[in-house]
Amino acid sequence: MWNTRYVLDSRPIGLATEANFRREEVSLREPGEGEVLVRVHYISVDPAMRGWMNEGTTYVPGVELGAVMRAFAAGEIIDSRHPNWKVGQMVTGLLGVQTYAMINGEYLTEVDINSAPLSWYLGVLGMPGLTAYFGLLDKGNPKPGETVLVSGAAGMVGSLVGQIARIKGCRVAGIAGGDDKCAFLKNELKWDVVINYKSTSDLPAALKEHLPDGINIFFDNVGGNILDAALTNLGRGCRIIICGAISQYNNKTIQGPSNYMKIITARGTLTGIIVLDYFDKAAEALNDLSGWLREGKIIYKEHIIPSIDQFPFALNLLFTGGNIGKLLLRIPIE
Ligand SMILES: NC(=O)c1ccc[n+]([C@@H]2O[C@H](COP(=O)([O-])OP(=O)(O)OC[C@H]3O[C@@H](n4cnc5c(N)ncnc54)[C@H](OP(=O)(O)O)[C@@H]3O)[C@@H](O)[C@H]2O)c1
């Protein structure tokens, strides 16, 4: 059996390119003691992967040159020498950008595909779902009637944050790029205010016009100019949650917020979230998220690309705004 895998070959400057990866076909060995062989069905494509391609350690170490590109993925166990795992079980884990993963069984999570499709465990019921859930509820502590502004609003995390905020009785506003994304937020998700930042020349003025009483919670996925614009319109006691800064991930020099003194006037707080800190509380979030999905209170969209060979292209869709919803690669299973 052969494994197709993408290995990090060089570190990108700016957007990653195909040349930063090496596509390899390698033969598979038998699992060693404690190891499990997983046939990968879906690979999650996440903005964090761009950061993992850089040298050095942030909240996790960067991927070593020559190593398989790190990625969350989901699949089926096809061989096991670990006492807790048997053939046929469905799992998720950091399986990498490859069609088969040989992994220490300690690092896998079992998922139930009778309750939800396998791919959902990489999105709404996976790492991004937990990010939205705990980022908003634990860091933001939203109260009914408050105004929640979300950037990157039509993306995986952003669209879920806004929907959870609506469930909690908040007024929800989103900033997204493009008419299709804004129509999705307005017409399908029924958000109160939607702003297309690509066709808005003065974002601070647009925020003032649409949210005249100010923002109570700003959930930021984007950073840069969008963060700066939001800071001009804070309500008193505003909570600003820095979840991501995708506008900056390809930049050598990071643009910091120049309007940060508005936080003083607003008596606001600014906080960061790393989802890894919440993995031990996942059950609580998954219970709520599954319930909301069942009740139709959450609409969940996926953007699936049906080939591992599109990986470099897929990664860049996140930075050009080409995805709507959770971006995944599907590996066809013969
Ligand atoms: N802290 C954590 O633990 C954690 C965990 C997961 C994710 N995150 C962060 O959450 C954010 C969203 O992740 P996701 O997986 O849900 O991705 P996503 O939102 O599904 O996809 C990325 C979106 O970002 C927007 N974008 C890209 N470049 C932009 C720019 N220069 N200016 C404005 N918008 C831009 C694009 O939408 P438009 O077309 O609207 O521009 C793109 O579709 C990322 O920043 C990610 O790093 C953090």
Structural account:
With 334 residues, this protein is α/β, with parallel strands linked by helices. It has two domains: 2-122 and 301-330, Alpha-Beta Complex (Quinone Oxidoreductase, Chain A, domain 1); 127-276, NAD(P)-binding Rossmann-like Domain (Rossmann fold). 25% of the residues lie in helices and 26% in strands. It is built from nine helices and 15 strands. It has helices spanning 48-52, 127-140, 156-167, 179-188, 203-210, 224-231, 262-265, 282-294, 311-320; strands spanning 2-8, 21-27, 35-44, 73-80, 90-93, 100-104, 109-110, 147-151, 171-176, 193-196, 215-220, 234-242, 269-272, 302-305, 326-330. The strands form three sheets. Strands 3, 4, 5, 6, 7, 14 and 15 form a seven-stranded mixed beta sheet that branches. Strands 10-9-8-11-12-13 form a six-stranded parallel beta sheet, with helices on both faces. Helix 6 links the parallel strand 11 (215-220) and strand 12 (234-242). Helix 2 crosses helix 8 (282-294). The protein binds NADP nicotinamide-adenine-dinucleotide phosphate. Residues 46-48, 128, 131, 152, 154-158, 176-178, 181, 221-222, 226, 243-244, 246-247, 273-275, 318-319, 321, 323 line the site of NADP nicotinamide-adenine-dinucleotide phosphate.
